[in-house]
Amino acid sequence: MKRLLHLPVLICLLVSFTKDLTAQFIKDVAGISVTAHGKSQFSDLPEGSGLTGNKFSYNTFDAWLSAPPLRIGKTQLFPNVSYRRMDFSFDRENTQHLYQLDKIHEIKAVIIVRHPIAAKWSVLGILIPTAASDFKNSLSADDLIADGIYGVARRFGKRANLEVGVGVHVMYSFREFLVTPGISVDYKSNNGKWTGQFYWPRLNVVYNVSPNTQAGIAGSIDWTKYNLKNFTDFEGREIDYARFSAIHAGVQFNQRLYKNLWLGVQGGISLSGSYKLFSPGHDTIRNFSVDNTAYGKAMITYRLK
Questions:
Q1: What is the DSSP secondary-structure string of 167-203?
Q2: What is the CATH number of the domain that holds 41?
Q3: Which domain of life is it from (predicted)?
């Protein structure tokens, strides 16, 4: 599962952030969103844990902004920055408890480089420096994650309305390299009614009910990896970092509010959640599963035509 959660994003981050790498799909170049989750609780807790039966809920706040694309000859650059905060609330507050989550912050920059090499072929390079922390201690090098995605994409069809990309994702964090493959699929029907994207680990399929209204399905694997160095569990084992993850699956509805301003809502189930604690040697010290729960999401975006 650890490897699966790091499988790229070959361009998947653009679904959440820039949405401007391909010419096919929705281009939400700026926006804000909030995702609320119903109450859940941890399973597989150590015997006698203070978190046993302590239900919690959490909200996720996101904001992203893309700078104007740059062009150097045939090469295009798409810069973007985003911020995410996960805010946890427990029935019984005990912020000193080692395993109790509080707030997690994530700041991410995305710089996409795209260069055409043939009529329907392009090479892609994406740099994704990230800082993730609960900010309970001063920011350090262990709060930084170096990310990079490199690949090629090809368009198919007379109208070039299908694009498939393949590539490699390289991540360095907590003194460990992860190298994994990736795939992306971007499709728009000939009549313009259906649009679909699969950028692992994210899926979006929408039907254009009218020029101002869309309905469809949405799915994603969301995870946040952050530093917990200098913590020791009750058995004396050192904890270096943690990862909170969940799979979201639901339906979506998008409505144009005014010109380029859109309102989007989603609702569904958050399932297969987990909260993992790792040693400096990348061994799993604790793996707490999270009970399934409902979620709802609302966002306002500025969308290019």
A1: EEEEEEETTEEEEEEEEEEEEE-TTS-EEEEEETTEE
A2: 2.40.160
A3: Bacteria
Instruction: Choose among 56, 55, 41, 43: nearest CA to 87.
Output: 56
Write out pLDDT tens, residues 57-66.
999 999 999 9
Query: 180-216 burial, b for 16+ CB within 10 Å, e for fewer?
Result: bebbbebbbeeeeeebbbbbbbbbbbbebeeeeebeb
The tokens of 96 are what? Answer: 């000193």
Tell me the whole-structure pTM to 2 decimals.
0.83
pLDDT tens per residue, range 87-143: 999 887 765 555 668 889 999 998 888 899 998 999 988 888 999 988 877 788 888
Give the whole-angstrom CA distance, residue 242 versus residue 305.
40
- The boundaries of the domain holding residue 62 are 2-304
Contacts of 156 (CB under 8 A, 6+ apart): 120, 162, 163, 164
Query: Is residue 227 within 8 Å of residue 132, measured between CB atoms?
Result: yes
* pLDDT over 90, % of the chain: 45
